[in-house]
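User:
Hi there, any thoughts?
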Amino acid sequence: VFLKKKRPDTMAEIRTLIGTKLWVSAGGQMDYYPFAGHRVAYGKSAGILLGAEPLIVKDAVEQVAPKSATFRIPGGDRQVSLVFTLPQSADATKEYAVPVGYRETGRYTFYTDEIFFYDDPHELYKHWGPEIWKAVDSHQVILGMNERQVQLSLGQVSKSVSQDYGNRMVVYANLGQPMAVTFVDNKVTAFRPDQGF
């Protein structure tokens, strides 16, 4: 599977994303915030982006971020956020913002290549089949999934008993509902809510 990379390093390059549809690769990791009056309302998270979730980019903005919003993406002199809508949400016109980079002493650093798919992952990974995609899109785990599929479904790994990818037990943060998943030969053989190792 070829994953497109854009490697933006200017605001002009990041603004080329305006009007495009992106899909979340870094599921369960990125808080997003309300966006109103040309400002990111950092006060309270509006949610966490989920794996394979589509969004439509509306703008790219720079703003000084409070320390509370620099957990994943540094604040720098000014943090850069993409303004977007969620086409599958109840209000597909409501705008939100997610930090994707920062400016420090006049230079930009962006993480869009790590946070998003530029092409629909349902097409990129169509060989996964409908059963796997049903589980990913509903953010669940099923027997037989591989580590990449489970990470897209449940989000970030919070801990693991081993570095042996595909042959280990992994605990996924799963939006505050930790799930312990056991892989053998890179296939899920067991999963349960995590009570600790």
Observations:
- The chain has a mean pLDDT of 94.
- The chain is about 15% helix and 35% strand.
